[in-house]
Each structure stands twice: as C-alpha cells, then as structure tokens.
Amino acid sequence: xxxxxxxxxxxxxxxxxxxxxxxxxxxxxxxxxxxxxxxxxxxxxxxxxxxxxxxxxxxxxxxxxxxxxxxxxxxxxxxxxxxxxxxxxxxxxxxxxxxxxxxxxxxxxxxxxxxxxxxxxxxxxxxxxxxxxxxxxxxxxxxxxxxxxxxxxxxxxxxxxxxxxxxxxxxxxxxxxxxxxxxxxxxxxxxxxxxxxxxxxxxxxxxxxxxxxxxxxxxxxxxxxxxxxxxxxxxxxxxxxxxxxxxxxx
Length: 250
Ligand code: G
Ligand code: G
Ligand code: NA
Ligand code: MN
Fold this sequence. Notes:
This is Periplasmic sensor diguanylate cyclase/phosphodiesterase. The protein is α/β, with parallel strands linked by helices.
C-alpha cells in the first residue's frame, strides 16, 4: 500500500535505496575475493525496513524487474570502477523467469563495461525447481557468457542432487543456518562437511555464509571450505569502506 508507492518513488528517483557490500574472504581471513551486494532502503519513515520484506513487496506488486535492474546497474557500475575481483548480485526467481532477463543483463554489462567474469548471480534453490526450459536455457546462456551462477542458501531448499546435476552451477553457498550451528551440535558439522564434499565432488566452489565465530571458521577451513562471509570477518559495508578494507583505496 503506502510502502509500495514509496518504493515506486524511490525506484523512479533512485533516491533512498542503496547497496551495501559484504566482502567475501579467503581462508587467511584478510584477502578479499569479492563482495555481495545487499540492498538497503533508508526511507525516513520505512527506513530500516528489512530488505527481505520490501523485496517481497516488490515481487508481489510487479516491481521486482525494475528493482532488480537498478541493483544490477548499480553493482556493475560500482565494480567496474574498482579493482575488486568480482561482485555478486542476488537475483529473484521472478527475474530469471522473465524471458528478457538475459538480454537486460547483457545490456547492463555493455553499458557499464563490466567484464562478465566479474559478475556472479546468486540464485536460490527455488529457481532450480522451475524445471522449465526457459529458466534452464537462461542460466546456461548466462554461464556461457562468463557470468558465474551461485546457488544461495544451499541446504535449506529442496534441491536434489538431480537438480544440481542438470543445472550448471559454479558455486554453492552453504546457508548460514548450518554454519550457525557449527561447534554447537555434532550433526551440523556432519551436514556442513557433506555439503563441502558435495561441492568438491561436483567440482564447484563453496562459500560459507554467516560465519560469526573463530571456531566456526576454523572448522570450515579444516573441512576444505575456501570462501568465508559473515560478521566475524565483516558486516556489509558502504562502498568506500569496502574499498578501504580491501586495500583498494589510496
Ligand atoms: O542482509 P540482508 O538483510 O540484506 O538480506 C536479506 C535478504 O534479502 C537476503 O535473502 C538477501 O538475499 C535478500 N536481498 C538483499 N539484497 C537483494 C537484492 O538486491 N535483490 C534480491 N532479489 N534480494 C536481495
Ligand atoms: O539470503 P542471503 O544469503 O543473500 O542473505 C544474506 C543476509 O545475511 C543479509 O541479510 C546479510 O546481512 C546477512 N548476514 C551476513 N553475514 C551474517 C552473519 O554473520 N550473521 C547473520 N546473522 N547474518 C548475516
Ligand atoms: Na545472497
Ligand atoms: Mn544466503
């Protein structure tokens, strides 16, 4: 209702919405490999409205295409002006179902000049359940162009091994609910180890998200996980803060 019209206004003016960037680190805990763009809405009234909520509103009210395009443009524009190796952008299943998505993405890359190899798209398992040819072809075409496809929140959905086999994925992100239980409960360690081993068996990358303690990180390193994201290492940051932390600012 009101949130909807305010969001529409923000999207049209490009005011009030911005991206935060959460760095993703190598096992040394200091090398920044890339960063995930996370949308923030600093509305004076609805400010602090959690992204999950207003993204759901945008999805329901047919605004996710416009919002998603803004996020892609903003993230690509930011990354191209830096030496950050790559930027990861969350993509709604609704965006991927849109037949024009690949074309829109190609246009954003062309406009901004960002090399496709520096863009990663985070999709959720629900996308893989869309067992339709449009989604499968879209993912394959994006990957063919050099964009990496990352499966977010891995372990929480319904992805069977069959989906993983049928869809070409470059990296799995182990959901933070599993990472969070590491060190507290034995069976979580077994699950996380199995997810890391699965990524290895499929020859895809693996990121642990929501890493909050040294103990969790040490366990993950021992399991062979190679990328780490979470509050232990860094919160989502303003663009300049990210570049400073990455040593990419003078
Ligand atoms: O950290 P955070 O509160 O930002 O994220 C909450 C949820 O919103 C996460 O599931 C995250 O993937 C999602 N999200 C954050 N930014 C975007 C975005 O730009 N697009 C989409 N589709 N989802 C996003
Ligand atoms: O669904 P997705 O994985 O894109 O969600 C990313 C969300 O996780 C964002 O809301 C981000 O702020 C949040 N996040 C990132 N690191 C941590 C962490 O260490 N702990 C918790 N609780 N949330 C985190
Ligand atoms: Na994500
Ligand atoms: Mn996630």
